[in-house]
Amino acid sequence: MTVRAATPPPLLERPTPPMGGFSVGVVAIEVRRMLRNRRTIVFSLVTPVIFFLLFGLDAAYASERVGHGNVSAFIMISMALYGAVLATTSGGAMVSVERLSGWSRQLRVTPLSPLAYIVIKMLTSLVLGAAAVVVVYGAGILVGKPSMPVGIWVGTALCVWIGSLLFAAFGLFVGYLLPSENVMQVIGFVLMLFSFGGGLFIPLSELSPALRTVAKFTPLYGLNQLVHFPLTGGDFAWSWGANVVVWLAVFVAGATWRFRRDTSRV
Amino acid sequence: MTSTGASTAETGGLSDPAVGASAVPLAVRLRQVHKRFGAVEALRGVDLAVRSGEVVAFLGPNGAGKTTTIDVVLGLSTPSAGTVEVYGMSPRQAVVRGLVSAVMQTGGLLRDLTVAETVAYTAKLFATSRPIGEVLERAGIASIANRRVGKCSGGEQQRLRFAMALVPDPELLILDEPTQGMDVEGRRDFWRAIREDAASGRTVVFATHYLEEADAYADRVVLVARGRVVADGTAAEVKSLASGRTVRATLAGADPDALARVHGVTSVEVRGATVLVQTADSDSVARYLLNETAARDLEITARGLEEAFLALTGDDHRDSTTGVPR
């Protein structure tokens, strides 16, 4: 039998990592990982650009004035929001695959705290959300069709980016709710519905009055109105903010509830 | 074999609580740990003390409670009753300090990372860690550092788990059936890596249902069955239990105490006029029975490993266990 030296090792002096094991290096690895996922790239970075090129340049309406800019700019913002929302939702929903594969369990024998894990997922989502905004806005600059003041380019981009964090919470909630490899297919469908409800693809004025009323209560409605506000100007409706706040509360509460169940499980 | 035999072996073990008083804290200390999952009692009062530097095998059939015990030691599961200490701390405190790490049966990997990235990911979570290259080298996977995890074989993935467990340079390494599903050669290579590592003085606890594995690599074998420790001793002791023979004889009014004193006897069972003696030294028992008593119809049968294993771990519920070493 191998027995150690009689002097006790300074066991208790071993340091514990700060911030529950959170590190920027891990976020970097997570981002690299997401960028390797072809489906994520296609859905959140390629599709929105294609949609913008298809719908945002139509000579029939693209140059029409909207607030401080034109319709092309309006559509560009919508598509950037669509891409960012897909990206952040995917980022959050990664917990589903990680739970299924047992990786979450592996992490539980490391110093990483559950909260630090969530923060890493949120930041990873934000990085990917930023990428989604950048590619759509980049396409807009390249084709030169969208027109609005520089400040509004920057302002709307930031609004879309920060606002998409709402859907990182949604992704976490769904990821904890549906432990499945196919969670992204479910999410892709649900987000498509939300996008129609939010008026990202077609103006809500095109819908029947009954549908329009329902649409105003869907999770992308308030956010979509808010991110366009710097461009459209006009009357500000507090109901937009209320829509975002209520849905944020729902997603965070749902994610927290599922997350607690998950960590207390043996 | 009756439970008498089991407790005979137990006295050769290290369940003495006084051990805890020494200067070096015990690596693992379980006291009367119970774990209940609904109506199922997975652990029914596990007592265990592992000293620093020991290499301990947790031997038992599937469903014996090995993994549940490991989960408790790692803080993945909270006991329904009883206490757990790892180096005198709570399991979570020991994990956060990198004192204990594990190669878990249920631990998953991320298929879309490379081998080196997976180890780097783990290293970033700890306050201090060993260099990634050194850890990959130790686990014997330096040559596949840039391979995607999803493209690695089962054995390579298992070595990766081992590499991840080495990252914090833990005092205690726990391996849950680490060679499950590996071929003979893979198993040998894996154990070579573990053994080289344990030579540096690391405490190792591994669960297995291969008696040969426990015998070959452990200083001490703890036999677990149906949520209890049924035997605890050196590998040699447990092996001799397993390699014993059964002496059967017809003898009215047998004296079980006298028989139990015969050299090598591990248990004595009297069934009416029949005595059944489990022993490591059948010659002495036969000599005693024939010379000192009126025993007749003597029968000596060798006990295979499987039978011994069943006898030790199955006792009264023999049918319900699948404790055959495979």
Keywords for this structure?
heterodimer, A: 266 residues, mainly alpha, two-stranded antiparallel ribbon, 2% strand, disordered N terminus, B: 326 residues, alpha/beta, Rossmann fold, Alpha-Beta Plaits, 2 domains, 6-stranded mixed sheet, 4-stranded antiparallel sheet, 34% helix, elongated, disordered C terminus
- In round numbers, the mean pLDDT of chain A is 90
What proportion of the residues of chain A form beta strands (DSSP E)? Answer: under 5%
SSE order of chain B, one letter for each helix or strand: HEEEHEHEHHHEHEHEEHEHEEHEH
Helix run count of chain A: 11
Q: Briefly note the structural class of the backbone of chain A.
A: mainly alpha
SSE order of chain A, one letter for each helix or strand: HHEEHHHHHHHHH
Strand content of chain B: 25-35%
> On the 0-100 scale, what is the average pLDDT of chain B?
83
The main pleated sheet of chain B reads as: 6 strands, mixed
Straight-line N-to-C gap of chain A: 34 Å
Fraction of helical residues of chain A:
over 70%
Count of DSSP strands of chain A: 2
CATH superfamily of the largest domain in chain B: P-loop containing nucleotide triphosphate hydrolases
- Helical proportion of chain B? 25-40%
Shape of chain B: elongated
What does the secondary structure layout of this molecule look like, with pairings?
The complex is a heterodimer of chains A (266) and B (326).
Chain A: H1 24-36, H2 38-55, E1 65-66, E2 69-70, H3 71-101, H4 103-107, H5 114-143, H6 150-163, H7 165-177, H8 183-198, H9 209-215, H10 219-232, H11 238-264
Antiparallel strand pairs in A: 1-2
Helix pairs in contact in A: 1-5, 2-3, 2-5, 3-5, 3-6, 3-7, 3-8, 3-10, 5-6, 5-7, 6-10, 7-11, 8-9, 8-10, 10-11
Chain B: H1 3-10, E1 28-37, E2 40-50, E3 55-59, H2 66-74, E4 81-86, H3 91-96, E5 100-103, H4 115-125, H5 132-139, H6 154-166, E6 172-176, H7 184-198, E7 203-208, H8 211-217, E8 220-225, E9 228-234, H9 235-242, E10 245-250, H10 256-260, E11 265-271, E12 274-279, H11 282-292, E13 296-302, H12 305-314
Parallel strand pairs in B: 3-7, 3-8, 5-6, 6-7
Antiparallel strand pairs in B: 1-2, 1-4, 8-9, 10-12, 10-13, 11-12
Helix pairs in contact in B: 4-5, 5-6, 8-9
